[in-house]
Amino acid sequence: MIALLLAVGFTAPAQAVxxxxxxxxxxxxxxxxxxxxxxxxxxxxxxxxxTLSAFNLTLTLAYGGYSDTFSYALADVLTFDxxxxxxTVTGLSFSTDTQAATYNWGEAxxxxxxxxxxxxxxNFDLGNTSEGNTTxxxxxxxxxxPASMLLLGCGALGLLAARRRRA
Length: 167
Hints:
It is elongated and about 85 Å long.
């Protein structure tokens, strides 16, 4: 009983995972040939990828000699899901709210995976303005919690104490 209370008392909260993200896209050949889009940023989740705690992304869209830069924060994320396998991002899906533009169109970023064809920029009036590739790299990953080792050690001590009492 004491070992269980000690283990629960020393259980660390879920560790945060920070990921750097990038997107590079070219104009949709039907809607916006010649447009280019690049985005870089990072996000932080818990070790399961279910709880998003930080998000920042800068997207630049260039078209027709003009360029707009959009900034997205945690409050601009509409949907989000990340899947990790060790220190690798194996699944990623998120969408942002549309930000207003100065020169071109308001834009949102939709990510449906990691790798080739993993993302699009989108304008609600025009559809996809770019289609491209995404990368996601874990820069800090969770460290195993000490609670498991503490619980194992307390169990071993309990077995030793029980053995000594019988002897």
